[in-house]
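Quick one, probably user error.
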């Protein structure tokens, strides 16, 4: 199991935060039964999708129905998915642990070690045999992908592309457009920028980018032409205006000091899984190596847009790279992939 992200970090849940409770958790039949017995006669709102059941959100877009005053009212009965946070166990060729940096309880700390917290939060709460089942399915999925890609002439080395890429240069207009060309895409940087801004215009609030501000406000945004309205969401999902960001349209080169975070994203096996997912989505009409360049370009634009928004919100230059990582990490961890998560 790859677990490099557990090193040199520490974690402590922050009182009054509750941001993880805006991520809708899956719940097993047993977990739902225990919660319903506890809450009776109060109903337990749930939603069902992809054959799975999730705890409902307040007004379908706010925090988990169990959250009040940013505290879980049924903390001892919270589902395993809640207990896992801020850790994510991804299954590719082998399992890899990620620490969700969107969580402000996670901090970089030389000499720190989150292995005991991962053991207590994830390994101790995963259902018996579940990790082994995911490992087996991931090996089968990756094996099937490679066979299909080879038959279609689409197989290639995604890691070699990442190793050869100048990730700092990708944060510039010329670097981004060069990556697009190597992926067979004739779009320019402004078009990539618009694609990265598209989620900010989503009608469904739950699909928009969210940012946990340093003062623990839950901020989201609404696209309005070349501007973004800044909105604060409360537990019930109500949105309150908190300002406006002007001049957001059009490519802006991202600060070069974003490159280390960019490099850490590309090093995650999830990145390769997302490349393979793109190849599969295109029915193997595109090769692994061109698809890697396209994914690098996509991530570049996503990171650059978020850095631009944070700069417009007044984030100090010496904090911009770190805050961009906090803004983007959850979105990256939600990337389509042929692997899977626990």
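Nope, works fine. Designed sequence:
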């Amino acid at each position: 199991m790859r677990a490099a992200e557990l090193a040199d970090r520490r974690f402590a849940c922050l009182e009054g935060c509750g941001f993880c409770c805006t991520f809708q958790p899956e719940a097993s039949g047993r977990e739902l039964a225990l919660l319903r017995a506890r809450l009776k006669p109060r109903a337990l709102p749930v939603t069902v999708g992809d054959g799975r059941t999730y705890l409902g959100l307040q007004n379908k877009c706010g925090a988990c129905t169990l959250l009040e005053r940013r505290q879980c009212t049924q903390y001892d009965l919270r589902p395993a998915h809640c207990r896992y946070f801020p850790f994510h166990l991804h299954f590719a060729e082998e399992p890899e642990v990620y620490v969700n940096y969107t969580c402000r309880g996670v901090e970089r700390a030389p000499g720190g070690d989150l292995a005991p917290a991962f053991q207590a939060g994830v390994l101790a709460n995963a259902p018996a045999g579940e990790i082994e089942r995911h490992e087996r399915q991931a090996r089968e999925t990756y094996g099937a992908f490679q066979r299909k890609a080879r038959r279609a002439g689409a197989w290639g080395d995604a890691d070699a592309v990442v190793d050869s890429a100048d990730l700092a240069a990708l944060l510039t207009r010329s670097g981004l457009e060069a990556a697009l060309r190597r992926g067979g895409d004739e779009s320019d940087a402004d078009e990539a920028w618009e694609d990265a801004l598209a989620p900010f215009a989503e009608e469904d609030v739950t699909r928009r980018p969210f940012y946990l501000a340093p003062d623990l406000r839950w901020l989201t945004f609404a696209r309005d032409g070349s501007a973004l309205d800044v909105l604060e969401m409360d537990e019930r999902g109500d949105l309150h205006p908190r300002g406006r960001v002007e001049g957001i349209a059009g490519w802006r080169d991202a600060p070069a000091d974003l490159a280390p975070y960019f490099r850490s994203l590309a090093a995650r096996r999830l990145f390769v899984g997302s490349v393979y997912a793109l190849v599969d989505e295109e029915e193997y009409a595109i090769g692994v190596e061109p698809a890697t360049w396209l994914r690098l370009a996509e991530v570049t634009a996503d990171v650059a847009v978020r850095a631009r928004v944070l700069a417009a919100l007044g984030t100090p230059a010496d904090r911009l790279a770190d805050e961009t990582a906090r803004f983007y990490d959850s979105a990256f961890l939600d990337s389509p992939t042929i692997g899977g998560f626990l």
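The chain has a mean pLDDT of 96.
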